[in-house]
């Protein structure tokens, strides 16, 4: 990889035992990058697991320690929020699917240890949405402050209720009714998603099927969310695929399922970049089959040039014009994919203004 | 070998702030401080004079920068605090760049250093034993702390009671003391020899002037202290000095609610506060006369 | 909320960290990471619930016996309220909730 920041990060994530060799200036940069892309907990725990924590510089050990305190706390708070949602839903007989981080955490997947997240994402059937909203309000959840435009955006175009928060707690609750906005170019059939959801033992919740978890993660990263500093989401994808590949038939089901749900393109990107950055052991025939869903070569080349720039954090002291442009193009692309132009253009105009105003470090020296 | 900041000339200091940054040891934290479009060398020199320089290579705990945005530099110059690309505060007028830097550094510590239980508390030490003054802002902890360190106590911190996870000892964090409003004149009268920086008028906390910490407190910043007393101060106009014992559960509540990260530390925080409250004597102090308050605190030693 | 007067409640002892000063109690509840400052009645009620299940009625009986306070409507009412508060805070669960749903 051509960016020193990216290769330093990937080295930390892929082979923690190499970290003993780092010089102090390298550590200085790495710590900043790890905080920035929220991977510090993961790397701290893998240094523990590799038995090298005690031999790292004292400053590094202390920052790892501080980070793990914070991460443990946030994880406990998200787990408690899930507990409270479970309690609030009692008697409604509405199935609740945990999505993303909370699903990985309560499923006790190994790769998510040390992962930092602050929100709880759940999915409920669209027909039950009103009852769920009503019940949550009765039990102390409130919509966080939104302006009228955002409120309308969520209500009309989005795939989730506006974010909620319990009045006594900090964790944000996002209640989804499908995995992509209603306006998106991709419209996976939500009935199909529900059919294969699974119970999560020891909890009142369900999770998506393994393949659907991978696809949701891919869609979220490449079609819905922002790619900026999202290397952590690539690690989620890698972790999910490595874990599920131990189940017989996983890869073939994954390809089939992507076709069934119309999500073959995001799967292509997921496989391509996981393989490229993390050497995820994707079987050759899966890779070859996924190639059929590659975009045409100008687009593919453009994505290959831009995605790494967006995924990996920049050097915190230097702003880079190419990276800024890549991020802006990818941000616009994600919106292009989720809304028709008649909604998109006014939306981007509003968001763009806010981003320009709120951009950190636009006065770099 | 002199690796103290006063080994640098104003010119060298200014150069470092504007280029690679000034590596500064702030108690147990190493910060790299940069400025752009602002000149803070003279102020930094006078108030940070006795601090040591940190290792140039890092790793640092914080990289901070105070910058004046070019676009407004000639109309209404502003100071913006940057922390690793983020801007946690609204910009202030450029004239308040130094107080902004000081608040910013405290903010970085409060948001990151979760290995410590961080009490919102002044603390001073004598003979290895420490008094903690946990208090809400405006209750006079900084003033009382400034008075005590001019009467033979060592400054641990005027803002942070850092309790170490490994041994429950207090980790010093001597920083310039931001005296506010009337306190500025009170301390000038109380301790004419103390060095105070310029008065910054009309900050969001009123007028602020920074007192330079005693050189000895900075030199001994790696020497921890045993927490012995919890004193909850409150300045009340014209009140006689009163020092009364405080019951355990109340002290617990006061310590826990006056901490930066009691909640973040979860069960460990609960256990630490419990040990602290059980091992310290707790008092409520009401005062208006600073000399009497100092006498009352000195009385604890006997 | 369904009528809970006949329901039994229980708490999990291992989730509690207690500190006691005379008749005042500070409780750290591990699952919610929250600190609670309790009076003696609430603390004893919660400690009882961590030993075995109680309904509002049996808990009122037990507390009246322990404190010598007369068992009247006032005590019954405040115990029922206390239980509801503890449930909202997640400190106790209704036992029917532990059973698998239909």
Question: Can you offer a commentary on this structure?
Answer:
The complex is a heterotrimer of chains A (365), B (302) and C (102). Chain A has 365 residues and is α/β, with parallel strands linked by helices. Chain A is built from 16 helices and seven strands. Chain A has helices spanning 4-14, 24-36, 40-49, 58-88, 100-106, 129-138, 148-157, 190-195, 210-224, 231-244, 250-261, 264-278, 284-291, 297-311, 321-338, 341-358, and strands spanning 97-99, 119-123, 141-143, 164-166, 172-176, 198-199, 206-207. In chain A, helix 9 (210-224) packs across helix 12 (264-278). The radius of gyration of chain A is 21 Å and the shape is globular. The model of chain A is unreliable at 355-365 (pLDDT under 50). With 302 residues, chain B is an alpha+beta fold. Chain B has two domains: 5-112, no CATH class; 117-300, no CATH class. Chain B has helices spanning 10-18, 41-48, 97-112, 141-149, 182-190, 215-219, 248-257, 266-279, 290-300, and strands at residues 22-26, 29-36, 62-67, 78-83, 92-93, 117-126, 129-134, 154-157, 160-163, 170-171, 177-180, 200-203, 206-211, 226-235, 242-245, 281-287. In chain B, helix 7 packs across helix 8 (266-279). Chain C has 102 residues and is an alpha+beta fold. Chain C has a single domain (9-91), classed as Arc Repressor Mutant, subunit A (Orthogonal Bundle). Chain C has four helices and six strands. In chain C, the strands form two sheets. A three-stranded antiparallel beta sheet of chain C has the order 5-1-6. In chain C, strands 2-3-4 form a three-stranded antiparallel beta sheet. The radius of gyration of chain C is 13 Å and the shape is globular. Classes of the chains: A alpha/beta (365), B alpha+beta (302), C alpha+beta (102). Chains in contact: A-B, A-C, B-C. Chain A binds chain B through residues 23-25, 27-28, 31-32, 35-36, 57, 59-60, 62-63, 65-67, 69-70, 72-73, 76, 316-317, 360-361, 363, 365, and chain B through 30, 36-37, 55, 57-61, 63, 67, 69-71, 80, 82, 84-87, 112-115, 165, 263-266, 268.
């Amino acid at each position: 990889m051509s960016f020193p920041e990216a290769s330093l990060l990937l080295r930390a994530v892929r082979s923690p035992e190499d970290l003993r060799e780092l010089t102090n200036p390298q550590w200085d940069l790495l710590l900043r990058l790890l905080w920035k892309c929220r991977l510090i907990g993961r790397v701290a725990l893998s240094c523990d697991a590799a038995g090298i924590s005690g031999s790292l510089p004292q400053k590094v050990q202390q920052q790892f320690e501080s980070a793990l305190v914070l991460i443990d706390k946030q994880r406990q708070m998200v787990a408690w929020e899930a507990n409270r949602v479970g309690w609030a839903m009692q008697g409604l007989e509405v199935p609740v699917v945990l999505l993303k981080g909370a699903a990985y955490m309560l499923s006790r997947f190994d790769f998510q240890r040390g992962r930092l997240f602050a929100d709880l994402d759940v999915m409920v059937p669209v027909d039950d949405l009103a009852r769920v909203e009503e019940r949550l309000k009765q039990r102390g959840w409130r919509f966080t402050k939104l302006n009228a435009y955002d409120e309308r955006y969520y209500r009309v175009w989005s795939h989730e209720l506006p974010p909620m928060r319990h009045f006594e707690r900090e964790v944000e609750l996002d209640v989804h009714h499908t995995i992509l906005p209603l306006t998106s170019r991709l419209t996976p059939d939500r009935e199909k998603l529900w059919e294969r959801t699974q119970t999560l033992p020891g909890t009142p919740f369900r999770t998506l099927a393994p393949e659907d978890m991978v696809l949701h993660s891919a869609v979220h990263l490449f079609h819905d969310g922002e790619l900026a500093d999202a290397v952590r989401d690539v690690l989620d994808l890698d972790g999910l695929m490595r874990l599920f590949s131990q189940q017989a038939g996983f890869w073939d089901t994954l390809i089939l399922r992507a076709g069934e749900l119309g999500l073959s393109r995001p799967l292509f990107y997921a496989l391509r970049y996981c393989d490229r950055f993390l050497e995820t052991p994707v079987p050759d025939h899966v890779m070859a089959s996924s190639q059929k869903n590659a975009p045409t070569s100008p687009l593919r080349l453009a994505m290959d040039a831009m995605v790494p720039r967006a995924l990996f954090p920049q050097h915190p002291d230097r702003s880079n014009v190419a990276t800024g442009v890549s991020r802006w193009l990818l941000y616009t692309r994600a919106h292009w994919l989720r809304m028709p132009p008649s909604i998109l253009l006014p939306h981007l105009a509003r968001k763009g203004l806010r981003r320009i105003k709120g951009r950190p470090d636009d006065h770099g020296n | 070998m002199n690796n103290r900041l006063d080994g640098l000339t104003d010119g060298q200091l200014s150069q470092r702030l504007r280029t690679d940054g000034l590596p500064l040891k702030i108690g147990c934290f190493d910060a790299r401080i940069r400025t752009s479009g602002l000149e803070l060398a003279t102020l930094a020199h006078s108030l940070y004079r006795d601090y040591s320089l940190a290792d140039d290579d890092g790793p640092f705990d914080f990289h901070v920068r105070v910058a004046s945005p070019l676009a407004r530099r000639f109309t209404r110059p502003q100071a913006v605090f940057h922390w690793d690309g983020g801007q946690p505060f609204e910009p202030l007028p450029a004239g308040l760049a130094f107080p902004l830097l000081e608040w910013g550094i405290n903010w970085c510590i409060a948001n990151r250093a979760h290995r410590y239980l961080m009490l919102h508390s002044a603390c001073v030490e004598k003979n290895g034993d420490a008094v903690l003054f946990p208090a809400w802002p405006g209750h006079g902890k900084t003033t009382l702390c400034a008075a005590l360190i001019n009467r033979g106590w060592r400054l641990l911190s005027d803002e942070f009671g850092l309790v170490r996870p490994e041994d429950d000892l207090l980790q010093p964090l001597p920083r310039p003391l931001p005296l506010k409003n009337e306190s500025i004149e009170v301390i000038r009268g109380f301790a004419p020899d103390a060095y105070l920086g310029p008065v910054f008028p009309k900050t969001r906390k009123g007028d602020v002037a920074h007192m330079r910490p005693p050189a000895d407190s900075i030199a001994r910043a790696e020497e921890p202290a045993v927490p012995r007393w919890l004193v909850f101060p409150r300045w009340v106009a014209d009140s006689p000095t009163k020092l009364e014992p405080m019951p355990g559960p109340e002290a617990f509540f006061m310590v826990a609610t006056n901490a930066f990260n009691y909640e973040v530390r979860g069960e460990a925080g609960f256990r630490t506060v419990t040990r602290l409250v059980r091992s310290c004597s707790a008092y409520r102090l009401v005062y208006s006369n600073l000399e009497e308050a100092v006498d009352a605190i000195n009385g604890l030693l006997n | 909320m369904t009528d809970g007067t006949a329901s039994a409640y229980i708490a999990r002892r291992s989730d509690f960290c207690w500190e006691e000063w005379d008749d005042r109690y500070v409780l750290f509840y591990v699952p919610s990471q929250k600190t609670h400052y309790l009076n003696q009645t609430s603390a004893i009620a919660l400690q009882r619930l961590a030993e075995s299940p109680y309904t509002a009625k049996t808990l009122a009986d037990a507390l009246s016996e322990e404190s010598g306070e007369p068992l009247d409507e006032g005590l019954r009412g405040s115990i029922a309220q206390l239980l509801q508060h503890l449930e909202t805070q997640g400190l106790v669960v209704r036992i029917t909730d532990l059973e698998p749903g239909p």
